[in-house]
Amino acid sequence: MTEPDLHLDTAALALGALPPGERPAVEAHIETCELCRAELAGFQETVALLATVSAEIPPASLRRSVLAAVAVTPQLPPVDRPVPAFRPSIASPPPEAPGPVETPDNVHYLRPWYRRPVTWIAAAVAAVVIGGGLVAVDQFRGQQQVAQSPEQCVATATDRSELTPANGQGVVTYAPSCGAVTVDVAGLPALPDDRTYQLWALSDQAEVAPRSLGLLPQAAAGQPQVVTQMTRPGEVAVAVTAEPGQGSASPTMPIVWMTELA
């Protein structure tokens, strides 16, 4: 029977995840192993930090932004290391069995940080506390959740508020926790075929240019239109201007419709 490697139990000891029958042997080993003492001290510092962490509900946009970043991040190709085949000749004798290999004193093997499922579970719990648990909990429980769309997030957010425009009809639903706003434009007069309405996000900083949130072709035809767009920190209002048919890089004054995100 293979004896457990006591070098691998420092993480489990720091997390209090060792079975009672194994703890004395591990503690006795650590007293004689300088490397394990240093490793245990590092793990204990990390565990101590967990007590200062407060759980927070991550915004609904976090999962969506992470998945979007993953989709455009190039992955490294697998390393191809072909193993040459041994092809003995008829005249050559069969290869001798390799003898024991002596390991130099200055070589230290890298060991895995886990040895048993209980340590993995404890580490997974720590990951849930530190990271908010959005992805770790899903994997730990074997569940797959579909990320909310911005429209769904705004519609169900507990901090959403309905705002009315200062100079027009319609309604704006703003949810800071989603980082998104749903704009329901109604009552704007129809524009000529070569003109359209364009939606903008306005910042509270004068040096930050208005950001285009897209065109409103239905509103330009005199019909109601509902759009949901992501907002950025510092953006305090949404506005509509009348622009050339293909839209503009910056708003054309005057603003025909505006709502403050307060």
UniProtKB/TrEMBL annotation:
Q: How does it sit in the membrane?
A: Single-pass membrane protein
Give the region (Disordered) as residue ranges: 83-104
The UniProt entry, under InterPro entries, shows:
Anti-sigma-K/W_factor, Anti_sigma_zinc_sf, RskA_C
GO process annotations (BP): regulation of translation
- List the GO molecular function terms: sigma factor antagonist activity
A cellular component annotation (GO) from this entry: plasma membrane
Tell where it localizes: Cell membrane; Membrane
State the UniProt keywords alphabetically. Answer: Cell membrane, Membrane, Transcription, Transcription regulation, Transmembrane, Transmembrane helix
User: What residues does the Anti-sigma K factor RskA C-terminal domain cover?
Assistant: 120-254
Q: PANTHER family given for it?
A: ANTI-SIGMA-K FACTOR RSKA (PTHR37461:SF1)
Protein name per Swiss-Prot or TrEMBL? Regulator of SigK
Q: What's the source species' lineage?
A: Bacteria, Bacillati, Actinomycetota, Actinomycetes, Nakamurellales
